[in-house]
Design goal:
It is a single chain. This protein is of the alpha/beta class. The chain has a single domain, classed as Alpha-Beta Barrel (TIM Barrel), CATH 3.20.20.210. The chain is built from 15 helices and 13 strands. The strands form four sheets. Strands 2-1-13-12-11-10-9 form a seven-stranded mixed sheet. The protein has a two-stranded parallel ribbon with strand order 3-6. α12 links the parallel β10 and β11. α7 packs across α8, α7 packs across α9 and α9 runs parallel beside α11. The chain is globular, with a radius of gyration of 20 Å.
Length: 358
């Protein structure tokens, strides 16, 4: 395979193969991009959800063209763009409607549409949802537009409990765990069974089969990939997590060839042992949240993940020296550094240091 925007694709591809096989080929992976010398400013990408939801696809395709023309995809980074319509898009498949504020076009949300969870059962996914139809159409546009230049990446799928939390409202859904636990269990089963269908439809529409698949967390593989998550875990205890959410995460991880778990906030830490016990989860993306110390300073959490055999995404490093300190603390197996912005020569020097110290 050749990509005009990634001349060293075959070398990077070999690095990714070794990574998913739990090996280390010379050094850990590095996801690094840089602006081409003398490049123009990249077009505003802050309205990407708004453009997609309002069917202004051509505006986003123009942003992609401008981005590709002005960006260097270095080390193991891959050019990827997603048909994402917003974080709560999964809830729209069950009746939610994406809402925007004029002042915040870069994000969106859904208002709760389920007043009574028991009365709303059974829940059924609708392929007539405007968001679903738009996702399919936009995915096909991206697949054609990206041939020979970039990959279409998997959407940010807030499935399982996150979708139900959006449909019901987080506070109401928390109360449902106490008031009607059987309805919660049934609703979870009904939403869970749609995940393979949703992923497969996006996978095919985006032309990922035979080409490669990435996600919003910057990873890439040649099979079925996604970033899985349940941010709702932070609002419930371990017993409820084991009963309702862990089976969903395990199903999603086992369906995929490779996956990264987005693990969000200190409130999720009581569930760490349970998510680490899910064998099919390859990598943990630990996100401490606002007001917390940087993720790379949580060495107790990071080392616990590595001891359980999980890979790690290390991001937010302020400088090369911080990366070197982290590298000396952690095992190189399963590490993937996100470290962009360096000129090519300086990045090459860093990659050489990683090879010598791995």
């Amino acid at each position: 395979m050749e990509l005009s925007t990634k001349p060293d694709f075959e070398r990077a591809r070999a690095m990714w193969k070794a990574y998913w096989a739990k090996g280390v080929l010379k050094r850990p992976l590095v996801w690094a991009t840089a602006t081409r010398p003398g490049a123009k400013n990249v077009l505003d990408h802050n309205r990407k959800y708004y453009h997609a939801v309002t069917a202004q696809y051509e505006k986003e395709l123009a942003v992609i063209d401008e981005t590709l023309a002005n960006t260097l995809y270095l080390a193991e980074s891959m050019p990827m763009f997603s048909p994402d319509h917003g974080p709560d898009q999964y809830a729209t498949f069950f009746g939610g409607k994406l809402e925007f504020a004029e002042a915040s076009p870069a994000t969106n949300w859904v208002h709760p549409v389920i007043d009574d969870l028991e009365a709303a059962l059974p829940l059924a996914m609708s392929e007539t949802s405007p968001t679903w139809k738009s996702l399919m159409h936009y995915s096909r546009l991206l697949a054609e537009h990206g041939k020979g230049r970039y990959f279409v990446s998997m959407c940010d799928l807030h499935s399982n409990a996150d979708a139900l939390s959006a449909l019901r409202g987080p506070q109401n859904f928390c109360m449902d765990f106490m008031d009607c636990p059987e309805a919660v269990g049934e609703a979870m089963l009904q939403v869970r069974k749609t995940y393979p269908k949703v992923h497969e439809a996006l996978y095919q529409a985006g032309g990922m089969e035979g080409r490669g698949c990435g996600g919003w967390a910057p990873f890439w593989c040649e099979g079925r990939y996604a970033t899985i998550q349940s941010d709702f875990l932070a609002l419930i205890g371990p017993e409820q997590g084991r009963r309702y959410v862990m089976p969903a995460l395990e199903e999603e991880a086992e369906y995929l060839d490779h996956c990264v778990l987005h693990f969000d906030g200190p409130g999720a830490l009581p569930h760490l042992d349970d998510v680490l016990s899910i064998k099919a989860i390859d990598v943990i993306q630990w996100v401490p949240g606002e007001g917390q110390k940087p993720m790379w300073e949580w060495m107790d959490v990071l080392k616990k993940c590595q001891k359980a055999g999980k890979g790690l995404q290390i991001y937010g490093l302020p400088n090369v020296e911080a990366l070197k300190r982290v590298h000396k603390e952690l095992s190189p197996e399963g590490l993937m550094y996100v470290f962009g912005g360096l000129p090519e020569a300086e990045l090459a020097e860093l990659l050489g240091w990683l090879e010598k110290n791995t």
